[in-house]
Amino acid sequence: MKTLAYPLLFVAAAAALAGCGGDPAPAAPSSAAPAPVPAAAAAAASTAPGVPCGDVTGTGGAKTAVVAHGSIDCAAATKLLKDYFAKLTPAEANDADGPGPIVLDDWTCGSGPNDPVTACSTEDGRQVEGTRS
To answer: In this structure, are residues 124 and 40 in contact, taking their beta carbons and an 8 Å threshold?
Structure first.
């Protein structure tokens, strides 16, 4: 009888331990609507990879690859970066904190010190990036 008692004791202990741990988490109702996503996050998520738009000439004649994110076409994205580079003064381009921020209509553009990427963005989640080659 001893050999049968150990397996039964094991089953009883396992059953008791399975009941420990408090109440199980309530299951989400199947008819629940998904939580709303903020507009800027939705715009960034929907345009994750971006659209390559060719090259423009940046500060100091550097070739800069343009990538558009969100609802902006390539013509507008390349014009934006051309306008940004044209507006930068030599002092701003060589600032220790990096060039910018510079406001161009709805857009704010700039980059960090020694950063090869110029980033422009709007409040509604559109983005344009320029990466120096």
So the answer is: yes
Q: What angle do CA 95, 96, 99 make, to 5 degrees?
A: 40
β-pair partners for 89: none
Taking the C-alpha atoms of residue 61 and residue 74, their distance in angstroms, rounded to an integer, is 21
Give the global pTM. 0.62
Place of tokens 């507008």: 76
**Contacts of 56 by beta carbon, 8 Å cutoff, 6+ apart:** 64, 66, 78, 81, 82, 85, 130
As a whole number, mean pLDDT of residues 65-93 equals 94
Phi, psi of 33 (to 5 degrees): -80, 150
CB atoms within 10 A of CB 116: 14
